[in-house]
Amino acid sequence: MYKFFVSSDQIQNNHVKILGEDVKHISNVLRLQPLEKLTICDKDVNKSYVAEINNINKEYVECTIVNEIKETTESNVNIDLYQGLPKSDKMEYIIQKTIEIGVGNIYPVTFERCVVKLDKKTEEKKLERWKKIAEAAAKQSKRDVISNIENVINIENICQNIKKYDIILLAYENEQNNTLKYELQKLDRDKKLSIGVIIGPEGGLSEKEVEKLIIAGAKCVSLGKRILRTETASLVMLSDIIYEFEL
Ligand code: SAM
């Protein structure tokens, strides 16, 4: 069942007031009744709880916290995705699926060969929709954290960010030798790792962009001999890393 995200100010002395669209979902879709239980997450402190419903009406659902859920659904590795802006609504698909798999923050990136060019207004509208999709995916997959969908950035921003990661991996279809397995197996497993992943748009990255990212410290890795769609590459890369460190 869904996990309902609330902010800390909706919790007072173990009493929780759920508001907004979730109220309709609880009463009309899940048809929950008083005394039944649901899972909530305080998104300000990333803590999850089992709560018992006391009262349901059109405006809000009141619950009492029964117990904290100690074990987390979050992965033991943080993976931020730098996603080349894809065409049409593929970004929505990538956001939904990578959140289910366990992605950290998602940075939409404009590369040279991106067909999509977003003006400020369109970007704001897209970000609003993408954040809604992120919250819905986090609820459905019972994450303890809603991944941030960051503002659209460029390759220079990635180069500035590279140092904050234990490794940043560039999925590069022309990479003949270096493998994801080799790069992951070199990492120190005795700490919570922070990994960045760069996936190009439909048209890929230019040689110049690849060069720039390598100089900044990114490691090129192949995802196999076949050419994957941008939306497939993100899922493959995320899944492989989760497989390596969590499963
Ligand atoms: N050069 C590609 C082509 O010939 O169609 C265009 C880029 S591909 C559709 C989109 C992105 O997915 C690439 O920029 C890369 O990040 C990733 N990708 C696809 N296949 C890959 C592979 N076999 N190894 C590593 N990355 C891959």
Describe the structure.
The protein has helices spanning 21-29, 90-101, 120-140, 155-161, 180-185, 207-216, 230-245, and strands spanning 3-6, 11-12, 15-18, 37-42, 47-56, 61-69, 77-84, 106-110, 153-154, 167-171, 193-199, 219-221. The protein is α/β, with parallel strands linked by helices and 247 residues long. It has two domains: 3-69, Hypothetical PUA domain-like, domain 1 (Ribosomal Protein L25, Chain P, Beta Barrel); 77-246, 3-Layer(aba) Sandwich (Alpha/beta knot), CATH 3.40.1280.10. The longest helix has 21 residues, at 120-140. It is elongated.
Properties at a glance:
Alpha/beta knot; alpha/beta; 2 domains; Ribosomal Protein L25, Chain P; 247 residues; 7 helices; six-stranded mixed sheet; binds S-adenosylmethionine; six-stranded parallel sheet; single chain
Short description:
The protein is of the alpha/beta class. Helices cover 33% and strands 26% of the residues.
Shape: elongated
CATH superfamily of the largest domain: SPOUT methyltransferase, trefoil knot domain
The pLDDT mean sits at 95
What fraction strand? 25-35%
Q: Count up the domains.
A: 2
Pairing-aware structural class of the strands and helices? alpha/beta
| Secondary structure: helix percent | 25-40%
**H-E order:** EEEHEEEEHEHEHEHEHEH
Please give the largest β-sheet: 6 strands, mixed
- Rg calculated over all Cα atoms: 20 Å
Give the N-terminus to C-terminus distance in angstroms.
Answer: 23 Å
The small-molecule ligands in this entry are: S-adenosylmethionine
| Count of helical regions | 7
Q: What would CATH call the class of the largest domain?
A: Alpha Beta
